[in-house]
Amino acid sequence: MNTTPAETSNAASHPPIPQEAFDWYDEYAHGLIDRRTFMARLSTLAAAGFSMNVLLTALMPNYANAEQVSFNDPAIKASYTVFPSPEGHGEGRGYLVVPTAVKGKAPVVLVVHENRGLNPYIEDVARRLAKAGFVAFAPDALHPKGGYPGNDDEGRALQASLDRTKIEQDFIAAAKFLKTHELSNGKLGAVGFCFGGYIVNMLAAVIPDTLNAGVAFYGTPAAKEVRKNIKAPLMIHLAELDTRVNASWPEYEADLKAAGVTYTMHMYPQCNHGFHNDSTSRYDKENAELAWERTIAFFKQHLS
Length: 304
Description:
The protein is α/β, with parallel strands linked by helices. Helix content is about 35%, strand content about 20%. The N terminus is likely disordered.
């Protein structure tokens, strides 16, 4: 079995979690296998000395670990606000975080969650952006279902039950809402993770005159027929061990080159899909911090 550097918090008594476990979790989290199959595969690791509790603790998110910026931080002001989405679900709702030190208008960044709604990790990412001087807005695709339910399994099921086209329209509406917000300087960035990475690529292709810069963490490309429309500079973060998403990169890169798009791709060694998410063992602190530094510098370059 191959292993990654990621280990559980009690690594002194357990070997590193096998790479197979991370791969199975990725398949489960993205609907390629069901929970029964996922659990059955994990049980096969018992012979290697892993208890199910150790494996699930390592793989499932613990959002208490993901708070880097408190919602009470005096440098920011966070609130929830709604926006119109006539082509989507009629109305959207998101988490708006404003840096208190900024007077007047500021660059704005849309933050797009994974395939399970607006969880605490994504809200914290929005707060991190506000601490860096951006007005950040993180919509919740699950607003039509009452919002993020408090756990990822239910959130994933709820998001899968929604019309994908309407979800995309909700994020298009959110991007336009944010770009024209009274606090916006007129420069819009977008950053997304997993499904959110796809949404960033999609926004760049379908509203090219609205998006000014996009950062996609391990997200798949927009539909091939619309990639030629992309104008905004892009930063792509990929994880070396994420073979599922990485398989789409060669063709996407060729299309970006053909369209004359300014882009940068960073491949992070020995990282899994989700390496920026500090609520699970997939988190790679060194590479996550490097990717985030690059992201902030990229937005400062293109949105100031």
